[in-house]
Design a protein that fits this description.
The complex is a heterodimer of chains A (about 375) and B (about 180). Chain A has about 375 residues and is mainly α. Chain A has helices at about 1-10, 10-30, 45-70, 80-100, 110, 120-140, 150-170, 185-210, 220-245, 250-265, 265-290, 295-315, 340-365; strands spanning about 215, 375. The longest helix of chain A is centred in the middle third of the chain and has 30 residues, at about 220-245. Classes of the chains: A mainly alpha (about 375), B alpha+beta (about 180). The interface of A and B includes residues 38, 101, 177 and 326 of A.
């Protein structure tokens, strides 16, 4: 079993090497290494960061359900959720660190904070999240029954909800981008965080179970598939209403951005990857699964890929419609954005790093819960 | 305290782009980075069609969204109204580019989203921004609105003006002369 595990680890290890090559290229060529421009300043690296940060939050929230609602069936994966959240958040932070023009100036977030900036709050809340995760991971190994874990867990829940809603608010408060503005994105970010969190948990549990020669226990599998199904349905509903309201909006920029997704140049990605692969197929697979772990694994994996493209889609759609600055100028084109090879390499690398970090955690730490079973023979 | 602003009479613009070139020379910008640009629009229906040119640059807003969203206060507004960037504080997150309703920021070689500086550091010694002094048709008038004897103050008393994208609540300090071209 050890040999299988180590052989499989070559794949994420190779992905990390590809990511490192991308990071070096970005370091040398700066903005020129990216597909972004002055018209579309945020690209797939921002989408990637949102993907990893939101998934880490979702994983953490599911772990919190296990912590505070033991009957949910999720208590068995509480420790794993902590280590998986770290394994997602650290590559996410690395991704945005590479994307930033001057990451070392981040120190000024401490010395010259701007409390009106969503990005300040994002840095603040996610740094606290990472710190709390480290504390919880530490206690889970050293003293799982420590009394302070209750209030740390409570603070962590509030922190996770505010952090992920604020992540949506960064976009929702950008008044110049009608596709993003409004209450939709903070709520959507929370729901899709839980969606990607449930999917990520199922994927790694299934993979780790394969490597250990076990399968995910019935209780955990059922609980996770319920969370996955509920969040898939809510995401589909939110998505449907966003499209309906967008297409019928009197705001032309919002209408054009929505039309671009539904019937424009982004339609293949929206219908094929985001809706078909990321929502419909997983719903069908979960409905057909009836406890079949392979179908559930496939549903979770497709959901994860779909959610990644959801992130890319909403970030691109929010920026590609030209702003009306001078009245009377009719822009007949849309701004172009094609993710560069460097961006893909970095996303690949971050994904590999997540898998590798989690696999190392499985090897080094005690992640099985005291009483409940995560895997069965 | 001065209250710097710019008045643009777009109806006089020929589209020669000397303003852009002068700015690039002043700040030693590479050819693909520019702090001001010309927007072209058509007006009327055939055969009575006219092309109009509208110079656009940083509006040095009184309520700049780029300052609101900057996580480290790298973007700041001076007491005289000029909006500047402290490159040492900028993390390069590009949120200011996303938030700007005028699309005027561009990332430079150091990863800093740059823009028009109203030639801060140059105008205090009495100079005019090169985009204004270079223009052969006096399209741009730069000056102090707190000085009633300044050229810009006098012109703004004589001519009705408008601003771009006021609905965004930015209170821009670049004004445009009304006159059939707005």
């Amino acid at each position: 079993m050890k040999a299988i595990f180590e052989r499989w680890m070559i794949i994420p290890g190779f992905m990390v090497l590809i990511g490192l090559a991308g990071a070096v290229y970005k370091l040398i060529y700066g903005e020129h290494a990216l597909g972004t421009s002055a018209a579309v300043p945020w690209g797939s690296l921002i989408a990637g960061y949102v993907f990893f940060a939101a998934a880490a939050t979702g994983v953490g929230l599911i772990g919190s359900i296990g912590h505070f609602v033991p009957r949910s069936g999720l208590a068995a994966i509480e420790r794993r959720s902590l280590f998986l959240a770290v394994s997602l958040l650290v590559p996410g932070f690395t991704l945005i660190g590479i994307e930033l023009g001057n990451p070392f100036n981040m120190i000024y977030i401490l010395f010259s904070p701007n409390f009106t900036s969503g990005i300040f709050w994002m840095g603040f809340l996610y740094s606290i999240y990472l710190a709390l995760l480290f504390v919880e991971c530490y206690f889970s190994q050293v003293n799982p029954a420590h009394g302070s874990l209750k209030w740390i867990g409570g603070v962590a829940v509030l922190n996770k909800i505010t952090a992920v809603c604020n992540l949506g608010a960064i976009f929702a408060l950008a008044v110049t981008r009608p596709y993003w503005v409004g209450v939709y994105f903070p709520v959507y970010m929370l729901v899709t965080a839980v969606l990607s969190g449930a999917a990520a948990l199922f994927v790694v549990l299934w993979l780790m179970g394969k490597w250990r020669g076990n399968s995910v226990s019935n209780v955990v599998s059922e609980a996770l598939s319920k969370v996955l199904m509920v969040s898939l349905v809510i995401t589909a509903l939110l998505n449907g209403w966003k499209v309906f309201s967008g297409l019928n909006s009197v705001d032309l920029a919002l209408q054009k951005a929505t039309a671009l997704l539904v019937s424009g140049s982004l339609a293949w990605r929206y219908w094929g990857l985001e809706i078909g692969m990321g929502l419909l197929l997983p719903v069908v697979l979960v409905l057909l699964a009836r406890g079949d772990r392979r179908k559930l694994f496939a549903a979770a994996l497709l959901t994860l890929i779909g959610v990644f493209f959801m992130r890319v889609d909403f970030i691109q759609a929010g920026q590609v419609i030209p702003q009306v600055i001078v009245p009377g100028i009719q822009h007949i084109t849309i701004h172009s954005y094609i993710p560069s090879l460097t961006e893909w390499a970095l996303i690949f690398g971050a994904t590999g790093a997540s898998v590798l970090l989690y696999a190392i955690s499985e090897k080094l730490f005690k992640l099985d819960a005291e009483k409940a079973e995560t895997f069965t023979k | 305290m001065a209250h710097y602003a710019m008045l643009i009479d777009a109806s006089r613009c020929t589209g020669c782009a000397a303003c852009r070139m002068a700015c690039q020379m002043q700040w030693q910008l590479p050819p693909d980075v520019y702090f001001n640009r010309l927007e072209f629009r058509e007006k009327g229906t055939y055969p009575a069609v006219k092309q109009q040119i509208v110079p656009v640059q940083c509006m040095h807003c009184d309520e700049p969204p780029c300052r609101t969203v900057c996580p480290t206060k790298a973007t700041y507004k001076r007491d005289d109204g000029i909006v500047l960037i402290d490159p040492d504080k900028c993390i390069g997150c590009k949120y200011c580019i996303v938030a700007c309703p005028y699309d005027v920021r561009q990332v430079n070689e150091r990863g800093i989203p740059e823009k028009c500086r109203f030639c801060a550091g140059f105008i205090e010694s009495g100079g005019q921004p090169p985009c204004a002094s270079t223009c052969m048709n006096d399209v741009r008038t730069f000056g102090d609105l707190d000085d009633p004897n300044s050229e810009i103050s006098k012109k703004m008393k004589e001519k009705p003006v408008y601003q771009l994208a006021v609905e965004k609540g930015t209170k821009p300090r670049v004004y445009y002369v009304k006159g059939g071209d707005e």
